[in-house]
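Narrative of accomplishments. A recurring question from our advisory board has been how the design workflow behaves on a single, concrete structure rather than in aggregate. To address it, we present the structure tokens for one chain from the evaluation set, followed by the sequence designed for it. No filtering or post-editing was applied between the two.
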């Protein structure tokens, strides 16, 4: 990764099959013994060397048979159809982890994923309201996921909780919410009222800045 120059700033969604409060963030085993989920990002500002990545979106759907650190994960990348060939190549280079320091998000992904399905290039509908704990990511025929606030089981009122990770490699602060997921691409699964993390992030070759 010598002389690597890339940066991604933007809105980050992580939804998975676990209970609220993603056990991975606490070095605990997944709620169901496995983890199916996704990460998605709207890049508000970004680049890979001279290639500008502003306003592009991407998602990665994943399935792990056990805890993430045990590996053997499977993934399918989904890239914004608006991306030019150069922008697609740039995003794939970043996602590959080859241009990231050890122990950073994309480098870790490269170690724990053993199979990558063919990518999907499609329109990505992306809505994000971190303060309101609502979000939506939709890719026709491949993925649909929506996020809403966790509800108090007695009053039905929205319940707010944050996870702060001063040394986190994915984000430093996230709003925790409730997600529904319907994945109908190469990886097929469905969840109801499972975990969601919403964060604004800055990712660089040396790791997360915020």
């Amino acid at each position: 990764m010598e002389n690597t120059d890339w940066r991604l700033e933007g809105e980050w969604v992580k939804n998975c099959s676990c209970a609220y409060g993603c056990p991975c963030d606490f070095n605990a085993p997944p709620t169901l013994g496995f983890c199916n989920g996704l990460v998605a990002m709207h890049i508000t500002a970004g680049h890979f060397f001279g290639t500008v990545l502003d306003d592009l979106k991407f998602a990665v759907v994943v399935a792990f048979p056990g805890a993430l650190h045990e590996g053997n994960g499977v993934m399918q990348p989904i890239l914004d159809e608006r991306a030019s060939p150069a922008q697609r190549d740039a995003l794939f280079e970043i996602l590959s982890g080859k241009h990231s320091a050890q122990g950073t998000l994309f480098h870790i992904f490269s170690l724990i994923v053993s199979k990558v399905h063919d990518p999907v290039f499609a329109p990505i509908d992306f809505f994000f309201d971190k303060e309101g704990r609502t979000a939506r990511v939709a890719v026709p025929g491949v993925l649909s996921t929506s996020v809403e606030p966790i509800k108090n089981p007695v009053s039905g009122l929205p319940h707010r909780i944050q996870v702060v990770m001063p040394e986190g490699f994915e984000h430093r602060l996230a709003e925790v919410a409730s997600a529904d997921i319907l994945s109908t691409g190469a990886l097929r699964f469905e969840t109801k009222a499972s975990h969601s993390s919403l964060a604004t992030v800055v990712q660089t070759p040396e790791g997360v800045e915020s």
